Amino acid sequence: MKRYSILQRYKSRGNTTWYGRISDGGIIRYISLGVTRKSDALEWLNQQNARKFIPESLLSEKKDKGLQVAVNAYLDHASSTHGPDSLTYKAYGTKLKNILRWSERNDISTLRDFSREAASKFVSWVCKEFAPKTAREIIRVTKQFCKWAGETFEIEGWAPMSFVKSPKLQKRKKDFWTPEQIDRILDAAPSPDFRLFWSLMAFAGLRQAEACAFGPGSLTDEGRLHVVGKGDKEAFLPISNRLNYEIARHGKITEGMFDAPMFKYSRANDAIRLAVEKAGVRSDGEATNHRFRHSFASNLIRASVNIKAVQQLMRHENVQITLDTYSHLLQDDLTEAANALK
After folding, report:
1. Minimum mean pLDDT among 52-61, 260-269, 322-331: which range?
2. Which residue out of 90, 112, 121, 316 is catalytically annotated?
3. Which whole number is the average pLDDT over 206-219?
């Protein structure tokens, strides 16, 4: 007979989510209830214990849940785990919009409607609709959501994404601007705010979302730049002389100065495309905000900065990621290195 109980796991890490503990024949498993109040967890526990007195004929009815309801519950769970203002929570919300959008177009309204066949079609659509790296992230988050939903709502036998494979990424050179080109683009910025916004990415390697969070609280008393990046990881970066100059040039720094639609999402790339055109910069590849970050790393490598230092400034998990991403620049330098001996 199954036995149920409730508890809070990982509380020492700040996770206030309640979990259900299910013991069945000596096998114990835990499921996230997606709630932070004990009263809600107790309601789940009472429901499970009440099942012991429900006729078997009624228990055999297959469980299901509305897809929108399940996604909202998962986002509530992510919010309680990572925080409502975290980049991780916001990224989950952005990526899960795609399964809702696709399902609405294909008359899929519940979790069981999202079958393995439907999941396969969804993945095919994602791979056609998005760049490989973005598609991989959408598929990864969707897999996590499906696994969580299946366990949380106890939908037996439902695992639509379990056999789905993520698309392989084709390596390609990362497009970048030279320091001279960056100067011209900054001079063509439509406003002082945009100039500083781009400078944070070009001279500190910040991601677009990280630059959006910049404000007075980002500047520490020790003269470093406080950044909360992917996975809500904190970092304290050195502020270069050039970035110090751009901050001083801008003048007054205010909280939320980049918390506006014009700096976010794909709309933010409209301004950079116009500035690149105005600056007369020939742009091989796309003109995007993220290209400033790649330019930061690329220009460091071209200036012969130690690859380990580049990894730490870019906040890559390990140096291999840096090497894999920018190996083409290192290869380009081999000829110069071979000719260094006279």
Report:
1. 52-61
2. 316
3. 93
Domain enclosing residue 15, as ranges: 3-59
CATH number for the domain harbouring residue 136 = 1.10.150.130
Look over the chain and give the mean of its residue pLDDT values, rounded to a whole number.
86
- Which residues, in sequence order, are CB contacts of 68 under 8 Å at separation 6+? 100, 109
Is 293 assigned a catalytic role?
A: yes
3-state secondary structure of 296: helix
Q: What percent of the chain has pLDDT over 90?
A: 48
Which residue(s) pair with 238 in the sheet? Answer: 224
43 domain residue, yes or no: yes
Q: Point out the catalytic residue in the list 290, 302, 315, 328.
A: 290
- Is 62 among the residues known to form the active site? no
**226 catalytic residue (yes or no):** no
**Can 316 be counted among the known catalytic residues?**
yes
> How far is residue 244 from each of residues 96, 221, 249, 253, measured CA to CA in Å?
38, 14, 8, 12
Q: Please say if the pLDDT value at position 173 is more than 50.
A: yes
Distance of CA 205 to the CA centre of its chain: 16
Q: Which of 65, 77, 195, 207 is catalytic?
A: 207
Q: What does the block give as tokens for 113?
A: 């409607």
Assess whether 204 and 243 both reside in one domain.
yes
> In this predicted structure, what is the pLDDT of residue 56?
52
Q: Are residues 121 and 259 in the same domain?
A: no
Number of domains in the chain: 3
Residue 74 catalytic? no
Out of 52, 171, 230, 249, the active site residue is: 230
CATH number at 286 reads 1.10.443.10
Same domain, 27 and 48: yes
Task: Give pLDDT, residue 59.
Answer: 46
Shared-domain flag, residues 43 and 82: no
Backbone angles phi, psi at 188, to 5 degrees: -95, 5
Tell me the pTM: 0.58
